[in-house]
Each structure stands twice: as structure tokens, then as C-alpha cells.
Amino acid sequence: MGKKMMTSNPGSELDLGWLNSVHINTAAVYRRAANLQSRKAVKGPYQAAWLLRAVTCIDLTTLGGDDTESNVKRLCAKAAQPVSNDMLNALGFETGSIQTAAVCVYPAKVPIAYATLKKMGMEKKINVASVATGFPSGQYPLETRIAEIKWAVEKGANEIDIVIDRSLVINKMWSELYQEIKKMKEACGSAHLKTILAVGELGSFENVYKASLVAMMAGSDFIKTSTGKEAVNATIPVGIVMCRAIKEYWTKTGYQVGFKPAGGIRTASDSLSWLIMLKEELGNDWLKNSMFRFGASGLLGDIERQLHHHITGRYSSANQFSMG
Ligand SMILES: O=C[C@H](O)COP(=O)(O)O
């Protein structure tokens, strides 16, 4: 599942009438989330297959102030071989057949990420995603936010994870939000645009739904929940709200926009809950990495432990699969 399968959303006119018609039944969202989360977990051989699917949907992320060249290189090596060949073979998969969807780094680390993947011959299989536009706060002039996108694309990023200016949502400045994201989409050129809403800072599900619509109207190829740096990051209820917006946008425009929950997704069991929610809300079309990603720095290790348990019947120590 390489880069070429990605689709692009051309966007549409800003439709304020549509935004004004939005009403969210908060109690119903929580009921739906509780109902989905009470479903029996996927078990047995299906579980291993779902977990491997989850691995192929990970944007393997390092977004630390202390990121170095060597930990970005290690991240790339892990993205190229996220599950050991022994485990893959035991599960009936070919050697080297699974990669994560992307590595996700700060702009300054794009050159080393791209060069490392290229050296490994993996630059066509693994996307280079760069956060941009003053991640994580977005509190920078538009000019420098746009320049950041262009710089990251020039250095090898083919996916750009922007943050929005949350104040535009809080103050319901939908037209300004639309114009900003549209400019960011233009700056991306052929790179895919993933728009981080930072849902934990938007105040209400209604704002999340409206911001999702505006982001899609402005041409976002994915909408993403969080930076991982807010106090509240990805939750299933907010995921349901965003998936409903994606579904409505698809129904009205015919364009399919991807979804990326990010922030605090740490366990194999979390990943299964998200995949179940996705399948129930958007259907099988979204169960692939051209339409769905996990933004996660610490999920892969737990999936590896779960796969190890599936194969051997034993749990490994917490630090056996420490990276990712
Ligand atoms: O976009 C990705 C997030 O920053 C990852 O958050 P996390 O470190 O909580 O997994």
C-alpha cells in the first residue's frame, strides 16, 4: 500500500448555509460511542490480521523537542520493518511485506527522514509526513506558516499535517478559516494535506463538526483529531463526530476524505476500537491507509507485544518492543 494509492480532495465552495444547518445530539454521540466500545473485541486469527492492518495505517511519529538525526533514522528503520520477519512468517506473511504508512516528523527532520528512506529504497513505499504551520499551536503569522509548508515539501515531505488557528473556530470565523486552509492546500502542491483540528481546544462537538466541514471544503485530504500535545486528544466520541462529517461531505460532494485520529493512542486494544468505529461509521472503503491513519508514537510496541502473544501464547516484557 504505497504512496500512489492516495486520493486527493479538490475541495468545494464554502457553504455557510450548510454550516448553519449543523446540529449535534451530544447524548446520542456518547450513546453510540458506548455501544461501539461494548462490542466484543476481535479475537483469534482475525485479531492478528486486524492488528497487522493497523500497523500499515500508522504514521510512525516522533515529535519531540529532543529529536535527533539518529532517532529519526531509527524511526525510519522501524517504519520499514515494523514487525520482525519471524513474526510475519509465523502469521503467514512474506518477509518484509509490511511497512507503516508514513513517518511523521518536525519540518527540520524531513531531510534526514527522506534521505534515510531513500537509502533503504523505501521512499516509494513509506510517506514522509511533516507537521507544519507552527505545530502544535499554530500561533504564528500566516506568511511563515505557509513558508514552512513549502520548505518541508521542497525537502521531501509528500504529506503535510497542518494545524489550524483554533481562534478562528472559537470565534466562528469560518470564512477566514476556509481561506487560510485553502492557501495551505495551494502551498502543498502535490503533497497531501492533513488538517489537524486540535479538537480538545475547540469547545464543542458542533465546532468540531463545522471545522471538519470547512477543512474538507478547503481541500483537506485528511482531517486529523489532535497534535498529541493538547490536554484532551483523540477520543472515540469525537472520532464519531468527525466521521459523520466525512460521510456527509462524501454524500454531498462525492469526495472521500481520510481520517486520522492522533494523540494518546497507545494500545493494540485502542487500535481495534478505532478500526471497529471506522468500519461501522464509514465502511470498508476507509479500512486502508489511503483513507485512514493512526498518528502515534507509542502504539506499535504494544501491537508487537500482542502479535507476539498471539504466536507464542506468552506476553513479552514491556521493553522487548520498545521503539514505536
Ligand atoms: O500526530 C501524532 C501525535 O503527535 C502522536 O501523539 P502520541 O505521541 O500521543 O502518540
TrEMBL record:
Keywords: Cytoplasm, Lyase, Nucleus, Schiff base. It is found in: Cytoplasmic granule; Nucleus. It catalyses: 2-deoxy-D-ribose 5-phosphate = D-glyceraldehyde 3-phosphate + acetaldehyde. Its main location: cytoplasm. Pathway: Carbohydrate degradation; 2-deoxy-D-ribose 1-phosphate degradation; D-glyceraldehyde 3-phosphate and acetaldehyde from 2-deoxy-alpha-D-ribose 1-phosphate: step 2/2. The keyword Lyase applies. Its EC number is 4.1.2.4. The keyword 4Fe-4S does not apply. Gene3D superfamilies: Aldolase class I. It comes from the Eukaryota. One of its GO terms (cellular component) is cytoplasm. It holds the Pfam family DeoC. GO terms for biological process: carbohydrate catabolic process; deoxyribonucleotide catabolic process. InterPro entries: Aldolase_TIM (IPR013785), DeoC (IPR011343), DeoC/FbaB/LacD_aldolase (IPR002915). GO terms for molecular function: deoxyribose-phosphate aldolase activity. Belongs to the DeoC/FbaB aldolase family. DeoC type 2 subfamily. Catalyzes a reversible aldol reaction between acetaldehyde and D-glyceraldehyde 3-phosphate to generate 2-deoxy-D-ribose 5-phosphate. Participates in stress granule (SG) assembly. May allow ATP production from extracellular deoxyinosine in conditions of energy deprivation. Interacts with YBX1. This is Deoxyribose-phosphate aldolase. It comes from Frankliniella occidentalis. The gene is LOC113212494.
